[in-house]
Amino acid sequence: DVITYNAAISACEKGDQWETALSLLAEMRDHGITPDEITYSAAIMACEKGKQPDRAFDIFREALSGGVFVTLWNKKDVDLHGLCVPVARTAIRSILIDATVRPTERQFHDCERDGDLIIITGRGKHSEGGEALLRPAISAMFDHDFKGELECREDAQNAGILVIPAASMQAWVARRRAARRDEVRVDVP
Question: Does pTM top 0.70 for this prediction?
Fold first, then answer.
């Protein structure tokens, strides 16, 4: 049943066995057992721990298409409350990737917005020891992965919120779309 598979996939994450975690996820589907949020979270965590962010991304997208994790995004903000750090990072990557494609090509997130992108991370009240985990991890992801190309800052009035200013997001999206067009031009004989 789903609980047994969840425990096994979670054990794979703890044991650095991302391939086995993905095999169990596939086996689960083959046996007609529907993965849930715990299943997908454990599989994403296993992939992230195994330095397989592309596989984590694919699992996250599969979860979205199955109706899991769909409530964390709305027109106004992204609410990462209750997610573990690897799933939260993967969710942000998913939203940003959708922002770079034309609206008709987007799979899950309507990213056309006039205002800032608000990312709710919380202050850590529900984390073990009461220390924030999501906010520093997401901030570090922006610092590392985007190296100043995409501004992400703490909200001045609420330490549990990160803000990507609209101008920064629009400029980053424009650069990504231009780079994609240039790649296509180079590939076309």
Answer: yes
